[in-house]
Amino acid sequence: MHNSKELFSMFKCVDCGCDFVEKLSETRVKCEKCGRIFKKEDGSWNFLPCGEVPLRVSIEEKWLAHEDRGVSFRVANWLIPLIKRNFGEKKVTILSVGCGTGIDVQMLNNEGYDAYGIDIGTRASRWQRNPWREKILFARGEVLPFIDGVFDVVYSWGVIEHVGQKGARSVGDEYLKQRENFLTEQVRVLKKGGIGIVTCPNRWFPFDPFHARPGRPALNFPWNRFLLSVGDVKRLLRSRDDIAQWQVVSLKGYFIFERSFDTALKKLFKPVIKIYTEQLTGNPFFHRSFLNPHIAVLFRKK
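-> structure tokens emitted (302 positions)
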């Protein structure tokens, strides 16, 4: 784990891009170039761009608890096995982009990894109870507050579709540039040989169960660019010459299948949906098609 001195040495000014941030105290740092002062708020550093404030949203406790159960399941059954397949038992340095309640950061640190998280703060009410809250920052994925090449693993799940979002399920004119910047930042902070992981609902799938009322999936049309396909993610990375490889990975262990199967009738279909989602999403003939509900793309930095 990074000590306090090493943590400060990782910071980067999100306004001017300066790599040299001076420690003023345990709760304040100053950019040596532009002079901006960044402070801790309720135990977490605020590295949002100038003029922005944390987006604090009131969310019912039952939904936060549901999210925590889902993320905890995913970390234990999908993310950690994926990390071990790529790095063995090495306790790597990890960044969660869009960490939500921060339960993933807590679990990874408890397992001995050096994990950090950033988020705009919609679920920051949960951070105060997190023993690792100093390692969770208010920040944007498009402007990460870290110097180059400090993480072995950078991941975001269910975040990239919200980059460039305008309206409920639509995007603005600059969405492609914003999403490219989002992935560029993840590559920038990766070490050589590090891996980035991006997951989101599949644009080609006819339904979107992740951005609708529980149990009532929204119809999804492929010409709506809110969601992304495997090809969309690959095209966003295509201009980079520092990506050694990319691949689609299986979603086995990714979903907990809890809220969507809350009635007796729905529970009858749970085994079928579980097999469908977990076994077929890693199939190369399946992951590009309209039959695939969710995508997970892994890329490695040269």
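Residues 16 and 34 are 7 Å apart (CA to CA).
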